[in-house]
Amino acid sequence: MKLVYINPETNLDLLAGSLWDGRGEACRQQVVISIRQGRIAAVRPQEMAVTEKNARQINLAGLTVLPGLIDAHVHLALDGIDFQASLARWQDPPAREAALARALRASLEHGLVAIRDGGDREGLHLQAREWVRTGKYPGPRVVTTGMAVTKKGKYGSFLGPGTTGPASIRELIATLVNRGVDQVKVVVSGLVTFHRYGEVGSLEFDAAELATVVKAAHASGRPVMAHVNSAAGVDLALAAGVDSIEHGYFLTTAQLETMAARGTYWVPTIAAIANRLSATVKQFYPEREKEIIQWTWESQQEMIARAYRLGVKLVVGTDAGAPGVYHGESYLDELLYWHRAGVPTAAILRAATVTAAAALGLEGELGQVRPGYRSCLIAVRGNPLEDLKVLAQPEMVFIDF
């Protein structure tokens, strides 16, 4: 992978063999993408392009250019390999810095130009955001949540300090806003368990408390992403007015219809369950639990396909850092799970680019190849609309931050 940095002085013409612009159902052939002063200025057929003396050219014949990919749910402070070892690293500054830098680099190498971090108790990804901003380490743009809003004594102690009531919730959100978080993450329910099919950890907040979270976050201009599983939990989250449902295992068709009507994003993170049956992870589960994992992710696939048909705003997120879900590397796994569910390839790519950009608050900046947008692009060998696997190893990644 060749990394190309775009700065505010960059004047560059990319001569693309083909282009998928983030919206269409097909690729355009023989296109010039003109970058002027760091931003996309024009997209034209090559025969209509005007050569400028101060603009250099990069010949991308034989490659398809498309918007850089976006992972809407990651945990940079976890590695997907060993949860306890990751937590131990948090207390070892050199080791945790090296691990965060590896996660950033791996994400970029797999074509990710933006990621949204779902939180860690120490707010380590806030530091990672600054490293990318200042150029200390290469990486995608990091959209931050800081520490998650969790209930003290319930699931999620590694994500946030835990709250004890409305005043505590408001205090934590004020602290997060002061630290400059981009969004607020709230943990509405526990995890999916594999003891019995459909079993989920208990709800953490009542309706009034969850309404406090959303009201305080929205008052500060921050969207709310809600970790939630179970139909009861999703009902609670939707009633409170959260902006995105994260995971959403065992939600219902009626809830999908509500989400479609309201424009609520869904980030189904199917890899977080399905990858537990990968070669490196499945050894840790007894046979009965493997069966439940299989049923669970197959059910999630069915709901993803249904959500697509209903017009829900689907967004690609992997939950990278979860067991068997690796930064950058597992992104293609998520795309392929959606494809096997029957979601059309163009729709999957839109969920990975233009819709994901909107969910991250980056609409108008990332997710499309069009004038005025940032020059965060990837070039791959082959046509991703015909074979998503060509995204596994981008030939070039262009970033402008």
Automatic annotation (TrEMBL):
InterPro entries, alphabetized: Amidohydro-rel, Metal-dep_hydrolase_composite, Metal_Hydrolase, Metallo-dep_Hydrolase
GO MF annotations in UniProt: hydrolase activity, acting on carbon-nitrogen (but not peptide) bonds
SUPFAM superfamilies tied to this protein: Composite domain of metallo-dependent hydrolases (SSF51338), Metallo-dependent hydrolases (SSF51556)
Highest taxon above the source species: Bacteria
A matching Pfam family: Amidohydro_1
Every Amidohydrolase-related domain range: 64-398
PANTHER family documented for this protein: ALPHA-D-RIBOSE 1-METHYLPHOSPHONATE 5-TRIPHOSPHATE DIPHOSPHATASE (PTHR43135:SF3)
Official protein name in the record: Amidohydrolase-related domain-containing protein
Organism, as annotated: Neomoorella glycerini
Classification lineage: Bacteria, Bacillati, Bacillota, Clostridia, Neomoorellales
